[in-house]
């Protein structure tokens, strides 16, 4: 250890403000980048679920329409 | 000879490869950055001229190195994107630019905070500082162009051209301290003679540089994976990766 105590390490021979400011802001900036990357992935997961739900809704409606169409033509056939 | 590269033009193959790398890169980055910075902050001896203020070097120099390294990587991706029209390379531009911009910001900020006690000023319009600031604007310009068009491929092409043209700035930054009179000190380790730094300071600096190399790689990997997923979101493999169950035929 280059310092005799933790107080001295924080004081940094009078340059503590500059040293800790530069380290703090740097770690904050890089940390924000990491968090942003994680948030983007979360957002993509939500978008994927929404996309799948839309596809399923569309498929269900198509099936319903097809069924309705079939029933109609069956009724017509019976007549 | 280069045929093994071909599958990686496909998003899914690259995504899986990057996924295999990401945990290792993240672990190495965390380990080396923590050891390098901790050693530099608390165990390296103080400088005989600058006292303890010089400890900013352990974050300033690695960030500056990889702000330029990331740009060079981005320019190579841009060249590949323009010449071979490989979409993965286009996405790499978008993945590298934010990481490079943050590293450039860190280099500029720590430089300013180091400059205040040592040079008596936060900022000086000198060659090294100005060219590094231009690097930040280049990164921001590349990002802005990438997202500025409705057609993503047009945006990627425009961003690639700017990235490629801007690469001329990288050697200017590196040699600026020799070509112009500058407040900024010259190179400490990247020169052919013996490094002008004692081993007790050089070792933590080299560890920190290795840490930032892994950190840059990990951050780019994370973002490139996101970008691939975003572009391939409509494909079943991408949806599966995001936790959506495969379709069982509705």
Structural account:
The complex is a heterodimer of chains A (79) and B (250). Chain A is an all-alpha fold. Chain A has one domain. Chain A contains two helices and no strands. The longest helix of chain A is centred in the middle third of the chain and has 63 residues. The mean pLDDT of chain A is 89. Chain B is built from eight helices and no strands. Chain B is mostly helical. Chain B is 72% helix and 0% strand. The interface between A and B is large, with 37 and 43 residues. Chain B: GO terms for molecular function: heme binding; heme transmembrane transporter activity. Chain B: Belongs to the CcmC/CycZ/HelC family. Chain B: It is found in: Cell inner membrane; Membrane. Chain B: Its main location: membrane.
What portion of the residues of chain B fall into strands of 2 or more residues? under 5%
Overall tally of domains of chain A: 1
Q: For the CA atoms, what is the radius of gyration of chain A?
A: 32 Å
Distance between the termini of chain A: 98 Å
Number of strands of chain B: 0
Give me the count of strands of chain A: 0
CATH A-level architecture of chain B: Up-down Bundle
Parts with pLDDT < 50 across at least 5 consecutive residues of chain A = none
Protein structure class of chain A: mainly alpha
Helix-strand pattern of chain A, N to C?
Answer: HH
Short descriptors:
heterodimer; A: 79 residues; mainly alpha; 2 helices; 87% helix; B: 250 residues; Four Helix Bundle (Hemerythrin (Met), subunit A); 0% strand; globular
The gist of it:
The complex is a heterodimer of chains A (79) and B (250). Chain A has 79 residues and is an all-alpha fold. Chain A has helices at 6-11, 16-78.
Which SSEs are present, and which pair or pack?
The complex is a heterodimer of chains A (79) and B (250).
Chain A: H1 6-11, H2 16-78
Chain B: H1 11-43, H2 57-84, H3 87-119, H4 127-146, H5 152-166, H6 169-179, H7 199-231, H8 236-241
Helix pairs in contact in B: 1-7, 2-3, 2-5, 2-7, 3-4, 3-5, 3-7, 4-5, 4-6
